[in-house]
Amino acid sequence: MCARKNDVKYWDQAHVKVKKHSTEYAGNITKQNNIERRRSTLTAHPTTLLGIQFRDTPTFEQVDSNEYFIDRNSRAFHYIIEYYRTGKMFWRTGCCGVTKEEMIEELSYFQLSIDILDNESKINPKSTNSPIKHMSNRLPSRSPSNSPANLSNDPFTPPHTPKHGKIQLVGAGPGDPELLTRSAYRAIKEADIILSDRLVPAEVLELIPAHIEVMIANKTCGNAEPAQEELYKLSMQALEEGKNVVRLKQGDPYLFGRGGEEYRFFQSKGYDPIVIPGVSSCMAAPLLAKIPATFRGISSQFLVCTGTGRRNTLPDIPKFHPNRTSVFLMAIHRMRQLSQDLIDIGEYPPDTPCAMVERASCKDQRVIKGTVGNIAEVMERVGCAPPGTLVVGKVCDVLYEDGRKYDGVVFAEDVLKADVNQNLLVFDLPTIYIDTSTPSESLNAQTHSMGDNYTLADIFGNSEEWRSLLVKDIQAIYSQTACICYNQPDTSKLVKDVKRMYDEKEGCRSEYFRTALSAIWVKKDNGMIVFSKPNISSQIFELILRYLYTAEIFKSSLDLPVAFDLMTAADELGLTLLVDTLQKRVLDKATLWYKRYFFTVLQASSSSPHLASLYQYCSSKLLACRNVLIKSDDIDALTADTMLDILQKDGLDVDELNLWEAVMTWAHKKNPNISTEPSDWSDEDVDCMKNLLHDIISHIHFVDLTMTEYNGIVEKYKKIFPQGMVDALKEYHESPSKTIHQDSLHPYAHCLSPRRYVRSLILTRRQGHCLLTGIREFRQDSRPNYVPCLLILQERGSNFGFTTHDIQAIINRSGQKVLVMKGNTPDSFICSPCSNSEEEPIDMSNKVMTFGQGPDLRLGIDNKNPDESEGFDESEELNHLASNTINVEEGPRGRYFTEERCELIYGIERLIIGTVAVSITLPLNIVFPLN
Ligand SMILES: O=C(O)CCc1c2[nH]c(c1CC(=O)O)Cc1[nH]c(c(CC(=O)O)c1CCC(=O)O)Cc1[nH]c(c(CC(=O)O)c1CCC(=O)O)Cc1[nH]c(c(CCC(=O)O)c1CC(=O)O)C2
Ligand SMILES: C[S@@+](CC[C@H](N)C(=O)[O-])C[C@H]1O[C@@H](n2cnc3c(N)ncnc32)[C@H](O)[C@@H]1O
To answer: Residue 679, Cα to own-chain centre: how many angstroms?
Structure first.
């Protein structure tokens, strides 16, 4: 049947035209003829094809609103239409080039008995070789065929005198409406009443036009017989009312579907049912589970059995055959017994591959793959509900690649290796496809084993807190995935299980997944949710999903570098609980990674507020360890912004020349194709380096270099130096006394002013860094009109003849407040009201700020100076610094300075702003110029 207008050009097509708005006339038009017929002619034989079509509303496929055509032999059609008109068959052998075969074919198609041909014309219909033979099979025709369905429709036997109605037994296929045959589709569109099996899914029933009455058989367990009786009764009533009755049956009507019984019943009542085959689940289920029913060299037999015999008896168990595929329907409830019987009675080797295909072709299809020996156990563990088809045989593995995971497939080995005693939910993650081709961005290529389960409880103890947080995540995922998590037979049950295990809590913490799985954002490709995260390797994503679904993280995931990768991925996906856990872990293991991956970690942590502890760690390390900047291998992990950020740090403990070299190493690593020898650079190379280094270069404090060093650099790299900067530096070098460099608004102010160092004989570097870090952190609030100021540190006053009175004098002379600090240990200061037990206590009134809770600074007493300024060992953990520093406390502003202490410094700054800088002209004084 064809509905396209341009197909009319073929001369041998019959074109049936119904005049517009006419219910009276119908016509047939071929290219040669234009013969009109009354509708009454076409409906002269009401149970034949034309009769049925034009009895009510014509249902041939429409070309136009009033035109239909049937893609049939127009010459034969002439005789057929004449038969409708006159009741006589004028065709004789040899007439008008229409062969006997063609004539029979056409009669069959139009559901006319071939008895209307005279005896001489009759031929064995089986010998028909018409090229359009299949058409008759596709239509609810009386076409002769070998099929049991059609044998009973034999057109040679005179039809029973029909009662008014018509009955069709229609196969609805396994579930997906796309797998309905065209005949089945047409039948359900044209029916007056549809009596459907329970197993026919809603998606198919939805295709039924609203005006058609639908009844669903109530064939529940133990109720099959009464339900069947009711079906018969309703069908007969409708038939006797002259209705077109469709018995809609799941799969194929005859295969374990009582279709044969129903056929007999209706035949005994004088109706010849039309039977429309359907795609049977016995074929569709294996196919849709990637299992070919037969496969050369592996399976050459295909057996379909029931898993439950009549009246709930045990079925006959087929004997094992190595080259056979066996399919069992109605087997789920009997799986324990059936699999045992297969092994014991059927002598199946327990390791024979098998698969349970649940809800084949439906949106929530799931496959459980195992062996005859373990399938029952696995089905019990993951939960499994009818309808499902069991496939047994070696073919089950043939299209599966070893070890690969497939969407919608649960592998027995995964389920069995989970420790049930931990009461964790374990199941496959069927709906999220993990693209293993994604390159792993792991810190190194070290693989990780997925063995060894580790629960969060092991890390946190049995705290209820993590459990409730976790359950929120799980619930969030489940509530959103209910529609896509199609391997779960009963999602609500799963959620209930989770709720039973943990307290029920509303909400969700993983904003990322909530959004990602929401209807607005979700992107589905072939029914799968696709997460495009090229920077997260597939192994890491799998660990994340596993954590989300099962509350497990693996012990091995806690080892570097997996822990680091997992942490950054979890951060990106907003799983803060996991991030915190892993961050602690990564920090604890810092000695293992910092030399090799220092910049990688710094870079990753610099961009995330959740990784602040790591960032703080790296920043401190950067300041305190002379070599870390110049010696770490992975400097190219830094982005230009982070590099700039580093160069702007006060108190970097690196010579400016080394810093310049580190910058150039970075630039070359970023552009490995550019020669390390600037004289070899092409114009393009120069542009590229200029772009990269433009901002960075002006943050090198070139004034800290000797003239020779500076000239060497400029000479070599002058192509990438901004001319203005070169000029300014030249001017500076020619007359260093000029104060051009003090102009903070100068575009090259950084180059022209010295880097802020702790240049002290009495303060250790750590003390200096500690102080600078604190000040710098505090100054991130940066007030716009920040005025240069001085902080004065005084120590060992008495050793140098400095008395309490001198201090007093300074305090009196200065503004309102003075901060007095004293180096204590190599890492710390103590600052407190000055006093000297042997002399008059200094009157500090409100001029002296106290700082910290350390012992009093006692002027005039020789405090041993534990100066280790040059003895700093950069390989030492900076953690040590933190833990050994008296004044260090965790605070909202960072590690070194609590809010309160920052406030103190703030007070000092306010004091000094606008006042004449107080300086003590003793060699002991340390001056921090703060621009
Ligand atoms: O004799 C009985 O009907 C009861 C025994 C029983 C059977 N399957 C069973 C049960 C348990 C039960 O339903 O309580 C078990 C049974 N009956 C059924 C299913 C499918 C399901 O519930 O998802 C299942 C399988 C459940 C499972 O996988 O564990 C339903 C069923 N059985 C059957 C049909 C077809 C029909 O009645 O029209 C239907 C479909 C009904 C519908 O959709 O409305 C038919 C059936 N049940 C059965 C057989 C016998 C097979 C044989 O030995 O040749 C046959 C085949 C036949 O009668 O031609 C046996
Ligand atoms: C009573 S039998 C009817 C079989 C049906 N006539 C056919 O040809 O598919 C019902 C059984 O078919 C199988 N079945 C039906 N629909 C299925 C589906 N969508 N996926 C897997 N198996 C299915 C199950 O084994 C179920 O127990």
So the answer is: 50
Give CA–CA dist 16/37, Å, rounded: 10
**Each residue of 526-577: pLDDT tens digit?**
544 555 666 777 667 767 766 665 555 666 666 777 888 888 888 887 777 7
DSSP label at residue 69: E
Contact between 633 and 657 (Cβ < 8 Å): no
Burial call 280-316: b when 16+ CB within 10 Å, e when fewer = bbbbbbbbbbbbbbebeebbeebebbbbbeeeeeebe
Determine the residue of 169, 199, 304, 379 to mutate for testing ligand 2's pocket, defined as the one with the most ligand atoms within 8 A of the Cβ atom. Answer: 199
Of 53, 30, 52, 54, give the one whose Cα is nearest residue 40: 54
Distance between CA atoms of residues 870 and 762, nearest Å? 11
Q: Do 298 and 306 meet the contact criterion of CB atoms below 8 Å apart?
A: no
Residue 818: what residue type?
A: V
For 704, the token pair is 């800290």
pTM of the model: 0.42
pLDDT at 600: 87
Q: What is the pLDDT of residues 24-39, one digit of tens each?
A: 333 443 333 344 566 6
- Residue 8's Cβ-side half-sphere holds a number of Cα atoms within 13 Å equal to 18
Q: What is the Å distance from ligand 1's center to 428 Cα? A: 30
Identity (one letter) of the amino acid at 346?
A: G
Query: Any idea which ligand is nearest the CA of 199?
Result: 1
Which candidate, 143, 15, 140, places its Cα nearest to that of 73? Answer: 15
> Among 247, 240, 266, 270, which Cα is nearest to 164's?
240
Number of C-beta neighbours around residue 126 at 10 A: 9
Q: Is 848 helix (H, G, I), strand (E, B) or coil?
A: strand
Whether residue 400 is predicted with pLDDT greater than 60 in this model: the reply is: yes
Amino acid symbol at 330: M
CA atoms within 13 A on the CB side of 263: 19
Ligand 1 pocket: which residues have CB below 6 Å?
197-199, 217, 219, 221-222, 224, 250, 256-258, 306, 308-312, 330-333, 386-388
